[in-house]
Amino acid sequence: MSVPNVVVHRDADVLAKAVAARIITRLVDVQSAKGSASIVLTGGTVGIATLAAIAATPARDAVDWRRLDIWWGDERFLPSGDKERNETGAREALLDRVDVDPERVHVMRGPDSGMTAEESAESYAAELARAARPEDHGPVPSFDVTLLGMGPDAHVASLFPGMPALYDTRSVVAVHGAPKPPPTRISLTLPAIQTSREVWVVAAGEEKSGAVRLALSDSGHVQVPASGARGRARTLFLLDRAAASKIPPELGRISSP
Ligand SMILES: O=C1O[C@H](COP(=O)(O)O)[C@@H](O)[C@H](O)[C@H]1O
């Protein structure tokens, strides 16, 4: 797994725009090299602001949206169209505004599918396994970019500190009793996240600064899930100044004005 690099931007607005530009560049590069690309989306404040920033820039046309597989790192177990679903936020901010291939938009199903949360997690795991190729060496495709928001408690996806999902070796799990509403969720596990070529953790605000510091330390993944958010080739912590304010000075970082 890769050692994280930290990039700090002035504020949450600049951060979202910078991450948007970075995503566009990465997807264009991967599509040029391989033909198609894959991305794992996140919910949360910066995650959705980033998607809106992609939609707002003309550079979005450089991406071939039909040659992109779109996955989610987690989903709130709510019916399709519910405002609190990460999918709904992503569709409103970006996916309804670009020419995606609906067959390549891989949503985590909610209760309106007739499935329980466990069945939905199993179904997503099966969808991932179908998409995996021999060179992935496992039941999860090697995502080109996994975008993860992070909570003040250092949760990523729907992996909350101390919860059983952090001991699970399957690729996707149902989460019950999440401390942040809604209590029932579906989440990739850390082993699934760690199959990604690149993992980018995005966070803004002073309330995230303690979690950022811990996530960059050797803290255990069970107490600090974000410390397990690592990509095989590259890990980036993309932060605003407030979120970066408790990072020890000896940890190298790149700042932008
Ligand atoms: O509930 C969730 O929260 C996190 C972080 O959200 P934020 O609003 O504090 O940025 C998000 O990454 C996750 O996908 C989501 O389900």
Automatic annotation (TrEMBL):
Pfam families reported in the protein's UniProt record? Glucosamine_iso
EC identifiers of the protein: 3.1.1.31
InterPro entries annotated for this entry? 6-phosphogluconolactonase_DevB, 6PGL, Glc/Gal-6P_isomerase, NagB/RpiA_transferase-like
Keyword Hydrolase applies: yes
State the reactions this protein catalyses.
6-phospho-D-glucono-1,5-lactone + H2O = 6-phospho-D-gluconate + H(+)
Q: Which domain of life is it from?
A: Bacteria
Give the signal peptide range: none
Pathway named in the protein's UniProt entry: Carbohydrate degradation; pentose phosphate pathway; D-ribulose 5-phosphate from D-glucose 6-phosphate (oxidative stage): step 2/3
CDD domains assigned to the protein according to its UniProt record, in alphabetical order = 6PGL
Q: Which UniProt keywords apply?
A: Hydrolase
User: Where's the Glucosamine/galactosamine-6-phosphate isomerase domain?
Assistant: 11-234
GO MF terms here are: 6-phosphogluconolactonase activity
The EC class name is hydrolase
Gene3D superfamilies referenced in this protein's UniProt entry, alphabetically: 3.40.50.1360
The UniProt similarity line reads:
Belongs to the glucosamine/galactosamine-6-phosphate isomerase family. 6-phosphogluconolactonase subfamily.
What's the stated role of this polypeptide? Hydrolysis of 6-phosphogluconolactone to 6-phosphogluconate.
**PANTHER family in the record:** 6-PHOSPHOGLUCONOLACTONASE (PTHR11054:SF0)
Protein name per UniProt: 6-phosphogluconolactonase
Q: Which organism is it from?
A: Nonomuraea helvata
Q: What is the lineage of its organism?
A: Bacteria, Bacillati, Actinomycetota, Actinomycetes, Streptosporangiales
Q: Which gene codes for it?
A: pgl
